[in-house]
Amino acid sequence: MIALVLAWSTLLLPFPKDTEGRFQMNREFLGHLFSLLLLLKHHGVAHRSTPLLYEWVNDNSGALAWAASHKCSSLGSLFAGLAVSQLHLLTNIWLTHSSYLAGVDMGDIDAMSRLETHIDEGKSPSEACPTLLPSLFLPLDNSPTVLKLFVTCMPTALPPPDHSQYHFLFSQIHEIIACILSEI
């Protein structure tokens, strides 16, 4: 597979340090959410009469299955699934299918997902991922609203099993998505 990079961005997930190595499916699915935001930033968010279709490529078969079925089977990923659904419905941009590609075959796209490791090693993003041209970078990591969305979608942020809290958080996800769409 030959990939042409039209745009790229990065975001360090706001997970607490004690969750490293946990919630991998959620982390990968959040990559789908972030990819969708990048697609919206690149193409614009105006609601289309004709759908914009995309394919999501990833190295985690579980997250790919969640994306393909348009649902998350983990309570911890409930809000990430709601955010993706809201974006699909509000923008008329739809996932056509998801495909597996081993991380080693993704090149710098996969390497950029380990940005925090590269920074800890003293490498700049351009040193760690030379094919990701700065001219194609679209900043999403400097948006407080985008960061708020990812904090809300952390699997450790689940409320107690009180249905009114879930409705409140669903409403909060909807408001955050509306703000992001107005910013982009």
Structural description of this entry:
- The chain has one domain.
- α1 packs across α2, α3 crosses α8 (163-183) and α7 (144-152) runs antiparallel to α8.
- The mean pLDDT is 85.
- Helices cover 48% and strands 8% of the residues.
- It is mainly alpha-helical and 184 residues long.
- Low-confidence region ranges: none
Q: Compute the CA-based radius of gyration.
A: 16 Å
Number of helices: 8
Name the shape in a single word: globular
Strand content: 5-15%
Largest sheet: spatial strand order: 1-2
Q: Report the strand count.
A: 2
**In total, how many domains does the architecture comprise?**
1
Helix-strand pattern: HEHHEHHHHH
Into which percent range does the helicity of residues fall?
40-55%
Q: What does the main sheet amount to?
A: 2 strands, parallel
Structural class of the secondary structure composition? mainly alpha
Distance separating the two termini = 30 Å
Mean pLDDT: 85
Write the layout of secondary structure elements.
Elements: H1 24-43, E1 52-58, H2 61-69, H3 78-91, E2 93-100, H4 108-112, H5 115-120, H6 125-128, H7 144-152, H8 163-183
Parallel strand pairs: 1-2
Helix pairs in contact: 1-2, 1-3, 3-8, 7-8
Give a quick rundown of the structure:
This protein has 184 residues and is mainly α.
Features:
184 residues; mainly alpha; two-stranded parallel ribbon; 8 helices; 2 strands; globular
